[in-house]
Amino acid sequence: MKQMNIHYPATLPVSQQVEKIKKTIASNQVTILCGETGSGKTTQLPKICLSMGRGQDKFIGHTQPRRIAARSVATRIASELDVDLGAQVGFKVRFADKTSKGTSIKVMTDGILLAETQKDPKLIQYDTIIIDEAHERSLNIDFLLGYIKNLLPKRPDLKIIITSATIDVEKFSAHFNQAPIIQVSGRTFPVDIIYRPLKQLSQDVVENIEDAVLSSINDLPPGNKGDILIFLPGERDIHDIKKFLTDQLKNKFEILPLFSRLPVKEQQKIFKQGTTRRIILTTNIAETSLTVPGIKYVIDTGLARIVRYNPRLKIEQLLIEKISQASANQRSGRCGRIAPGVCIRLYDEEDFDLRPTFTDPEIMRTSLASVILKMASLDLGPVHQFPFLQPPINKFIQDGYQLLYELDAVDRDFKILPMGHQLAKLPLDPSLGRILIESNKQACLNEILIIISALSISDPRERPLDKAEKADQAHLLFHDPDSGFMSFIKLWKLLDAKISIKSGKGLRSFCQKYFVSYTRIREWQELYKQLAEMTKELDFKASKKDVTYERIHISLLTGLLGNIGTKIIDSHEYVGTRGIKFLIGPTLFRKKNYKWVMAAEIIDTGKLYAQCIAKIEVDWIERLSKHLVEYEYSNPRWNSKLSRVDASQKTLLYGLVINANKTIHYGSINPEESRSIFIRQGLVENQYESPAPFWTHNQKLIDEIKQLEHKSRRQDILINDDILFDFYDSKISNEIMNGAGFEFWRKGIEKDEPKFLFLSKDYLMQKNADQIDGVQFPDQVKRNNVDVNLNYHFEPNHPMDGLTASFPYHGLSQVKQESFDWLVPGMIREKVLNVFKLLPKPVRTQLTPLPKTITEFLVQADTTNNFNQELTQFIREKTKSTLRVDATLVKNLPMHLKVNFMITDDEGVEIDTSKKLSELQAEHKEKVTEVIEEMDFDIEKDDLTFWPEHDVPEKVSAERQGEEIVGYPALIPNEVNVDLKVLDNETEAKSLHQLGVRMLLTLQLKDRIKILKKTPPQFDRYGLSLKTYIETDALKENFIEIVLNESMNWSEPVPRTKGNFEKLVTFAKKRIGEVIIELSNSLTLIAESYHAITLALKNQQHLPSTVREDIDEQLELLLPAYEPPLFVYDQIKHFPRYLAALRIRIEKYTQRQEKDAESLKGLKRLQDKWIEKVIDFVENDEEVPDMYVDFQYALQELRVSLFAQELKTLYPISQKRVEKQWYEMMLK
Prior knowledge:
Blueprint: H1 18-27, E1 30-35, H2 41-51, E2 59-64, H3 67-81, E3 89-93, E4 96-98, E5 105-109, H4 110-116, E6 126-131, H5 139-151, E7 159-164, H6 169-175, E8 181-184, E9 191-195, H7 209-218, E10 227-231, H8 235-249, E11 254-258, H9 264-268, E12 278-282, E13 295-300, E14 303-310, E15 315-322, H10 325-332, E16 341-345, H11 349-354, H12 369-377, H13 394-406, H14 418-424, H15 430-442, H16 445-455, H17 468-475, H18 484-497, H19 504-514, H20 518-537, H21 549-559, E17 564-567, E18 574-576, E19 581-584, E20 596-604, E21 608-615, H22 618-624, E22 630-639, E23 644-653, E24 656-665, H23 671-684, H24 693-712, H25 721-731, H26 739-750, H27 761-764, E25 780-783, E26 786-793, E27 802-808, H28 825-838, H29 841-844, H30 850-860, H31 867-879, H32 887-890, E28 900-904, E29 910-914, H33 917-923, H34 925-934, E30 941-944, E31 956-960, E32 963-973, E33 978-983, H35 986-1004, H36 1006-1014, H37 1019-1026, H38 1032-1047, H39 1058-1099, H40 1105-1118, H41 1135-1147, H42 1153-1179, H43 1186-1203, H44 1215-1227
Parallel strand pairs: 1-7, 1-8, 2-5, 2-6, 3-5, 6-7, 9-16, 10-12, 10-13, 11-12, 13-16, 15-20, 19-21, 27-28
Antiparallel strand pairs: 3-4, 14-15, 17-18, 17-20, 18-19, 20-21, 22-23, 23-24, 25-26, 26-27, 28-29, 30-33, 31-32, 32-33
């Protein structure tokens, strides 16, 4: 081993105080050395200790905050001692141990020293420990300072040297019982501080940092040597400004980046100076420890990305902040090492003065979970009693315990659990340690080792901005569409497949090809190896062969329960625990619409981003977070199926809804409320049915009283639910909350008191109801031989409110709606009262007092007659008005006064319901017809050409399942002859029978009809003239239709016997000839008149539209085709006169315009009234009364009187007479 050559460079300030330092160290257990930047303390102190004879049998430990600094400091000390690195001087960092048995000076990160306390609690392997750059106040440094303070009494031989820049060194001295402080001057050359704040370009625009940096470089004196160190907030800023400066400076400088994730080979470039001036772009990594040679100028943006842990949101916030004054001074200290330096600050002096003096120690801005575990494993007592240099805020301590509770490492009282002791043994972040332990349980250890070792280092994937697209394509080869964690496994397997390239050149080529970092892949492999060896020692079991996605991600979820989220509908955001909202960080996952995701971390960089995410199932979360979730209960309710009380449970994890609506048994959660719900909903509201006699008895009484309430439309007869509740509440044991418990209790109590739970009618009734009997409110009535059941329901706005008449299918066509217009005796008074209230006030006032008038009406009314007609007649007699109670008025009655019609099957089960019986009849006609068709009435025949041998009665009946079924026989025409069928509807049967009789008559007159169909008499005289109005074939069909109708003897009933039919045939054969001649003559005259009207209209081209419309309406009545009910054969002989009057009106219109308009106005008013009434009959499927048909012909006579008096009218007529006729019609 080489002899060490210890000397101290005279240019370093620390070299001037070597003896003083030795004496102080020798005399004190702890020494504080305060050295400014450039004093040489970092490299010379280990040599001073070595020269004092320390480090012979044990190490001189020398800690550095960063790996890059540990490596470079060890290299520098070995060089100055002229020994090989790894011999007397070595270093140990994560993944690299370059020490040997002969090592005296061991440079390491403070994290390494802290980890060694697990196996070497008293640090026996060291006789000297130098804590360098203590002013950085990392979490590790603060913990070490507290740990060492406790250790010193147990290790009096141990020398501790704390080095710090000129930052609050008195605090370090006080911490170690006023340990001596040695001050060492720093930089050898002065540094000019130039404040150059960003320019305000306009009111809203400030100069960007890129332009400010470029301007500052250009403002430096030309020809000056010396490199430039530029401090920037983060890696992306370095990438952006490097590209910008490269474009702008055109190779005048060598531009180098420097940040912690940079590969070691790239980092080492900053220590090699060339002929070209350099610009070093760095983060705050270059503030301390690391000395970059050749720096003469510093440009300080005054910004840095500072990691701050938010204990409320449980996330790390990596936000850009203004640096402290101490950090700014550290940055300016980086120049002035080789010559006078210049530091340009891109902010003003006032801004500097307002900044905090020191950067917050890491312990004040990070999670303390790992510290708490370490302290517990080393038995260091409670956190708040540990001698930290600056005690952490209590909320950070509580947060650390909360995270450990989440990981199942401590209980609710924060006592360490077995899981916590296991975690403390693992050199991992507690969350990753929890994942590793779960992987052993889930039998996926190998896969989790790959993942957590990847998560413990910087992401091995690289994405150079100038090759971003290629990098993305390469990364797709090991991308997993559902999980960023699985992508690590795919990358590992891809790497594993290339066995030959696991080291050396092949691995480098692999890394270049797939855009992954060679250094970080090496770190990954090394950490995996270390963790694998550790799990073997812990007797963890290797993975099974078929490791599922679920098992891997359940393991991960145990350590990441706080990093979950669910997708917000119609948004790119996810909502996470504690009310946070975040976006997906990795680009490849942003377009996925996973319902639930888990992230390795959620970072705040101005917006919250989830990094390394995976799709998960919500039931995994619920399964793993039982100790963390909170429950909210709502809608407790009786479950009739299970005879118990259930409730809706909402499961929340840190405020995030995991399960919004899970039905659970509520009895054990709230027995008292469950008992109340059982009694109220189960017993009082009848949702529970007991097989016991008390239940049958009580329900029968309650149903009887409820029916009285429905009939009388009152709700004050039955006691209210609260009284019934009190009855059961006073009787039932307090422990009863479900059906099973109730039945067990009831059986026991009823052994001694069988009627313990029986109710009485007197107890249930609040008021007497003797007046509500079967006469006033019958339960059944008979209508047309149909038994109709009546049901009463009192529930306003309910579709079944009021009276419901129910009957089976076969009664549907036989029941008439008007037979129910009288409702039942107990309801008719209310209906009449409501009709009276709808009457116009002048009429209504004549009926007061209404109760007395209603009684008068009901006493004299004939309920076998139509209700509307009876009430109309009564009102007219009382008031002398023309008012009519009709469908228009009655439809405004309250809904409960309109009967609900219900059809049922043979078992009485509802099939359909409607307020309109006609709708049910139309909707279910086929089914009703089927019922009738299934019956055997022993009368039906097909294909008749003459009257059957027997009569065709109006009604027949047969029995079906004990009920009388009524049918209505009818002769029904088919295409060529007649069928005798039994129908379900009396009205329809009569109508079809008439057509059938006419068809039979046609068959008897077929020869005569055949001639008519070919050429009706005089057809050539009227057919051609009328062709412009009606097609020839249609006119012929209409001619035959009229002839057949008028050949029947309408003075006699439609034949039902063979004899009567034969009489009709005899009559028709005689009558048909007369009708043919009459009709032919009339049509000839009508055609001539129509031709004359057509000519007159051509001569009057400018008739007003109102007149033309009136002419068209009149022609529609007077010209074929003629159809009932408005066509009356006896009137056709007057049609030529009506048409002649119309022609005269047209011809004389020019001379009589004003009089025509006045006449038309009166006519129009009467015509509109007539149309309004006729439409009502048509819409309600009612036959138009003869008086309305006659009135239409009275209007035709009035037209003759108004427009062509010379033609004479059938009878005296005027507008007043016609109005009087209408008035008298309205009185009927």
